[in-house]
TrEMBL record:
Domain of life: Bacteria
Protein name: Sporulation protein
Entries under SMART domains matching the protein: Germane
Sequence ranges assigned to domain GerMN in this UniProt record: 91-178
Species whose genome carries this gene: Dehalobacter restrictus (strain DSM 9455 / PER-K23)
Length: 218
């Protein structure tokens, strides 16, 4: 019998404590909304206090890349440093800038037919595979085949993830480029004459028409 009374006393004590806590919550609700505030308002207030607002600030970053063009005789590579907006597809944008040609104040010359279009590009296992339109195969001005070819190869292999370049034309693998074999195309330092300085991408002139360039591929 004594145990039953102790149990009832304990239950009553718990009930009183619960009632007092409930009254405090109710008082808060009454103070908040003049007696008309719903319980969800208090719960929402608590949730807001526990939430930390996170803000992100977008920053425009830039990247300087090296582009290799021809000299006046078409036999030596001239290195041009170009500053472009940083992008997720840096290799794609770099080749697109190469196809646009050198800056107007540069002493370098374009390498390939300005109608050449970048169709696709990818880098995997150290191999950069670039797919260009058929205009790439056409001789352009007095630029030698070797200079034009390694202008592209050196431009691509400046990236640590690309050691070898593989070239496709209109989606098809090609074995030669104007009589030059395309096996194991790697960076060649011996063809580089000199550097022409650094330019911003907005300094590139319309000498090579941007209308013939596909910046995003298909």
């Amino acid at each position: 019998m004594r145990k039953i009374r102790l149990l009832l006393t304990f239950i009553l004590l718990i009930a009183v404590i619960t009632l007092l806590v409930g009254c405090n919550i109710l008082n808060d609700l009454i103070k908040e909304g003049g007696g008309n505030a719903p319980l969800s308002k208090l719960l929402d207030k608590t949730a807001q206090e526990d939430t930390v607002e996170v803000t992100t600030e977008s920053q425009q970053t830039e990247q300087t890349v090296k582009l290799y063009f021809a000299d006046a005789d078409g036999k030596v590579l001239i290195e041009e440093n170009r500053t472009i907006p940083k992008t997720l597809s840096l290799a794609r944008e770099t080749v697109s800038q190469w196809l646009l040609g050198p800056a107007g104040k540069s002493s370098a010359y374009p390498m390939v037919n300005p109608q050449t279009v970048l169709l696709d590009i990818g880098i995997k296992n150290g191999i950069a595979t670039v797919d260009l339109s058929k205009e790439f195969l056409e001789p352009y001005s007095n630029v030698s085949a070797e200079t034009a070819l390694y202008g592209l190869v050196n431009t691509l292999t400046q990236f640590q993830t690309a050691q070898i370049v593989k070239i496709r034309v209109e989606g098809q693998d090609i074995q030669t480029y104007r009589g030059i074999g395309l096996e194991n195309l790697r960076y060649r330092n011996d063809l580089i004459g000199y550097a022409s300085g650094t330019v911003q991408d907005d300094e590139v002139t319309a000498e090579v028409s941007p209308s013939g360039i596909n910046l995003f591929g298909q």
